[in-house]
Amino acid sequence: MLRYGIHEDQTVLNQAAIDRRYIYRTIKRLSDVTLSAAGLILLSPVLAGVAIAIKIDDKKGPVFYQQERIGRHGKHFMMFKFRSMCVDAEEKLKELKKYNEVDGAMFKIKHDPRVTKVGHFIRHYSIDELPQLFNVLAGDMSLVGPRPPLPREIKQYTDYDKQRLYVIPGCTGLWQISGRNDVGFREMVELDLQYIQKSGFLYDLGIMFKTIKIMVFPNGAY
Hints:
The chain has one domain. About 45% of the residues lie in helices and about 15% in strands. The chain is built from 10 helices and 6 strands, in the order ββαααββαααβαβααα. It has helices at about 15-20, 20-40, 45-55, 90-95, 115-125, 130-140, 150-155, 175, 185-200, 200-215, and strands spanning about 5, 10-15, 65-70, 75-80, 140-145, 170. The strands form 3 sheets. A two-stranded antiparallel ribbon has the order 1-2. A two-stranded antiparallel ribbon has the order 3-4. Strands 5-6 form a two-stranded parallel sheet. The longest helix has 21 residues, at about 20-40. Mean pLDDT is about 90; it is low at about 1-10.
């Protein structure tokens, strides 16, 4: 059992037991490399089309957006996404923080003025996150796991919240298939801890299939 204690509505995980899951982690890594490589090859026409659309929409800005994220055990890495916002999005963030619609250590607003025309479409269908397959190949991310947090979010984390960092972060997870931006920070933490408890090959596979369905029929992405 990965869980060794529950106090009221809180889940406490056994990090040592999680770290000892060598077979699961090895097979998961092999699956990540195989599936992400195959995905990049099969989706290459889509990736090229999106890149062209982004350049047409905003010729001055880059196609890809790199952002520092925190991975397993606090490791810093650069996560790749298709750029869906204006080039000065980070500078404008300070002005928009007061409109945050998500509680806790996250920032989301439904009608974010920083999002471009193409950005609205690719974010709605989660296409902007496809370049994260490169992060999976590099080993910084997995196909399934908790959402990788930003450094500024980590500063607001409690020790309880930091249990999310016991495993490699993922491109998708329970948060994404359970309402995504309609789910608050506290609920997201609980979903991630639930995933870490139940994680296994079939469980991961089920989440991936549900993710594909949600990309076709979005459930709160913006």
